[in-house]
């Protein structure tokens, strides 16, 4: 990978755009939840935990606009809406699984390092 000008540092670079999309706090979690199959909005809120309905709606709309998630409205009374990954969205299943595995293996170490790090540049590190 090149770090020269004209690569991922340009604002219109496709890689940078993709990283900005999946770098959002709730994007990867939402995609991971949908990797198990279609879910309704309320099911996603419950499964993900900690996300507000409003923020989840914004995340789902952004993922739809990017072609990673589909919204299916079933003709029922009341209408039932489900979200699922598109074919393009499914291409992120393996990278997200790898990232999830990395987090399982290294999450505790990262948390310990963050707790030991100084809170601001002039502060001494916390003692273990």
TrEMBL record:
Domain HTH hxlR-type per the UniProt entry, residue ranges: 13-111
Location of the region described as Disordered in the Swiss-Prot/TrEMBL record: 109-128
Entry keyword Cell wall biogenesis/degradation: no
Keyword set includes DNA-binding: yes
Gene3D superfamilies xrefs: Winged helix-like DNA-binding domain superfamily/Winged helix DNA-binding domain (1.10.10.10)
Keywords, sorted A to Z: DNA-binding, Transcription, Transcription regulation
Protein name, UniProt field: Helix-turn-helix domain-containing protein
Source organism of this protein record: Pseudonocardia zijingensis
